Structure formats: structure tokens, C-alpha cells
Amino acid sequence: MATQPDVPSLDVPLSALLRVPPGPVDLGSYDCAATTGYPGEKDGVDERMTELGETLSQLQERLFANGRTYPDTAPAALLVLQGMDTSGKGGVLRHTVGMVDVQGLSVAAFKKPTPEELEHDFLWRIAKEVPEPGFLGTFDRSHYEDVLVSRVEQLAPPEEIEQRYDEINAFEAGLVARGIVVIKCFLHMSYAEQGQRLMERLERPDKHWKYNPGDVEARQKWPAYQDAYTVALERCNTVAAPWFVIPSDKKWYRNWAVAQLLAEHLQGLNLDWPAGDFDVQAEKERLSRTFETPARK
Amino acid sequence: MATQPDVPSLDVPLSALLRVPPGPVDLGSYDCAATTGYPGEKDGVDERMTELGETLSQLQERLFANGRTYPDTAPAALLVLQGMDTSGKGGVLRHTVGMVDVQGLSVAAFKKPTPEELEHDFLWRIAKEVPEPGFLGTFDRSHYEDVLVSRVEQLAPPEEIEQRYDEINAFEAGLVARGIVVIKCFLHMSYAEQGQRLMERLERPDKHWKYNPGDVEARQKWPAYQDAYTVALERCNTVAAPWFVIPSDKKWYRNWAVAQLLAEHLQGLNLDWPAGDFDVQAEKERLSRTFETPARK
């Protein structure tokens, strides 16, 4: 029996509250400033995050330990982060993912495909970054860009993009079959909030490096992007790999919600510390004998 | 002029205190429990680490920002961690490296080479993990294993191992020439301390996964390993990429010392926030116009 670290329990698991129900999706019906499932007031969020970080770190260490011991068969977890510019993919990585041990993390960011990547199927570069057994992998943007920006900007023929939804579902089902828990988060931010955040980047010279004039062009196509997200959330919302919508206008809530989701999913693996494949007592005696040997030539 | 985050200043930079002087190395003359350069008492170490973590995180963000803006020419940093089992390579990753944003990290751990890796030159697998411009890369073990375990266990002919020191120096000089700051740390722990730490792993079921009976075999060859480290520290202690010896019997000191070394080296890059290649005022006006556009189709 695995004794699991306690994940702060909610009346209803956050996974159940934020999971996108099957069927049509209406992104406009979501309140991006909601704090769904968050118990109490924002005031307590620092303490709550510290506590959740401890739990997350313990759960992830168990995952890592299992990966070390069973390198071919241990499970893994994959956090997929999607959202418009400034929705907080980087913030979640820094503040939430950053709470676990870097040794067990694999962090991938998918930008505009390189010429080499474009020569291959769109999943080629993605497959290379799938986390190894025992790892928590994170995707900052992902294969979904190939049905988001590609759809809005018409970077591929419509019939090709049509096929990609099924290819994505098959790909993700394959990951799940290999023991990889897939947690797909859409960081849902309002149009007004994005405007404020982009303006802040322009107002602070230490944030200029994060600003790209192309961000405004994408903003001007906001409705088309929301439509593209809607289709992706409807067509790739499988039982094996469902979508979660994270209200992301409040950064503190967004960071907490992803942490809580991660903790719930890692706890769901129900992992124990791996037993050693050695005789503990015999090893203690063998080690004890070395204490008497002076460390000299 | 770059205004740099303040690195807590010491009377003498820690880099100068811990750097291995040119010439013969006598590892036996080092006190593994020393707290060289640490100001004040251990009691203050938590606050000091928090403060240093802030600084480190700010310095690393500047490095990352430069990498994003100048992806071909920005500098990078590489932290090489070497030391006997339990000396704390993992602890430094968790507690020191873990203080910076995971987005700008690349973490590599080198274990027993795979059959594919053995088919190539020993530097082949290393070169693949060299950090990209803007990244802080970490090596948990490294190319030095090929002159350490390979020497002690005679995994290659002596004349081949002889050649590797020069090959390593040429390789590292190449990294430095590309703008990569190389920080090589030998976590120097005493024989007695290793015995205690291995015993603790045996006594705690949640640590059994970290224990390997082979660790005791390596311990029984302690003098041979110390000799191999001595040769590596003598022959690969170049001006471009010097060695640092970190007294590592005290975990709190070890973690602080590596953090301080990292901060001093990143500060030495003297990086400013990259300027945007756009007209800030024009972008503000362009963005402002989008505020009036309702987000509708």
C-alpha cells in the first residue's frame, strides 16, 4: 500500500471542476477571472502554494525514484500549456513547475518550426520531447499550434488541418497507453486582460525582450484564435487526454490551479517508494566494514 | 551601462578563494568541512540563500532574455558537477540550481554510457548537451567520468586516457571561445562523511532507490578515485576553464558556495536587458488602438 503525501483536499477535486465536459465548447461562457474551486481568500495563497509545493515536490520525487528504478516501465507526466500571448505559460513554468526538483523535469518550448522541422510531420518534433519514464515533462506550446496558428494563418491546407485533430488524438492515446499522464491546460485569459499585459511589457524596459510586434497582429485576430481553440477543445477532448480550462486573468489563481491539478494527477498514480533489489541488512554490514578501512593507499 | 543585480559581496570573491591554484594538487590538504568565505554563522544561511536566490534568478533571466533576443551570439553558462557518490550533485541541483527559472535551464545527467554512446568518441554525448545561447546548463557528472571511473576501472587503455586530458582541455577551450562560461565544481567530501550518508540511505526506505551496492565497491577504491581526481584537477585546470574545489561535508555550505560561484560568474557577464528592435511609442499607439476594437467576430 502506498502512503501518499496529502494533497490539500477540496470538496470536489479541481480536475473535476476544470475539466471540459464532452460536447460543444462555448469559451465565451467562461469567466476568465473566476477562482473556481479555490478555498478561502487570495490572502492565504502564498502559504497555500508553499504547502502545495512541498506536496508536489514529494509526489514528483516518487515519480522520479520509480523512473530510476524501473527505467522502461515507470509512468511519466506531461503538462501541456496553451494560451494566447501573455496568458502565463512562462509564469506557470516559473512559479508552479519551478517548485519541483529540476532533476526530474524536462522542459520543452515549441516556437515557429525550423526548416528541418517543417520537412517532417508536425508530430515529429513533438515526439522527440515526450518525457522519459519517471519525468515530469512540460510543453510550452505544443502540437496544438498546428491546429491553432496554422488554422488562423492558413499555414496548411484546410483538409490537412482537418486530419490533424485525429492524428493528435491518436498520438495522445499512444502516450497514455505508454503510461504517460497527459494534462492539457488552456490558459483562458480575457481580451481586456491581454491588452493590459502587453501594455505593461511596453512600459517596462526590462520586459521589452518579451514583446514582439507580431503579438498585436495575433491580438487583432482574437476571434479567429478563440474559434480555433474552441475547435481544438471540442475535437481533442478525449477520455484518455481531456482538456482543462484554467481561468487565467488572476495570475495567483492560475498558478495555484495548475499546481493543484498537477498534484491531483500525480497522486492519482498512487506510487510508492521503489523497494531496493538488495539485502538491506547485508549491505549495512558490508558498508560498516568499510568504516574500519582507513582511506589510504 | 548595465546596472547589475547586486551579488552579496564578500571581502574576496568566492571564485578566487575556491579556485584551484595552478600546479600540483593535494586533495588531502583540503578540509572538507571548511566554510571558506562564508560570512557569519550558519544560522543566517536560509535568509542568505533566499537573497542569493533572488539575485541568481535575476541574473539568469537577463541571460535568458539575451538568448531570446540574440539566439546565435548570446553567452551561456555551464555548471559541471563532479564528486563521489553522496557528495551532493543532486542536492546542488535541487537546492541551488532549483532557485532559477526552469525555462532557462538545461539539465543533463551522464550515467554509464549506452552501447550507442560507446560507439562514439567520449565527447560525442557531451557535446549534444552543451547549453544553447542564453541557457544555464548543468552537468551531473560529465566528460570527466572518462578520466575518473574509466581510469580507476581501466575501461580504456592507459594511453587513450592520457590523451583525453588534452582533448578535454581543447573541448572546453572551444566552449569558452563560443561564449560559454564553464564552472567546474569538485564536491569534495570526506571518506567518513560518505560512510554516514550511505548508511543513512540504507536506514531510510524512502532513500533505498538512491542506493546501489556498486557504491560500496567505488568506496573501497576511494584512494584510487582521489588520485584520479587529483590528476584531472591538475591537468584540466586551465585559465579558460579552471576547477573549483567545494568543501562538501556541510550541505548548507556546499549549496551556498555553488550559488555564490554561479552568481559571481553570471554577474561577470555584465549583461543588460536587451533593447527591443521596435519603436516603443509606435507600438503603444498600435496596441492602444486594439483596446477600442471589441473582441467579436
TrEMBL record, chains A, B:
Q: Which UniProt keywords apply?
A: Transferase
Would I find Isomerase among this entry's keywords?
no
InterPro entries, from UniProt?
P-loop_NTPase (IPR027417), PPK2-rel_1 (IPR022300), PPK2-related (IPR022488)
- What is any one GO biological process for this UniProt entry? polyphosphate metabolic process
| Any coiled-coil regions, as ranges | none
Task: Output the Gene Ontology terms for molecular function.
Answer: phosphotransferase activity, phosphate group as acceptor
**Protein name, please?**
Polyphosphate:nucleotide phosphotransferase, PPK2 family
This chain's source organism reads: Raineyella antarctica
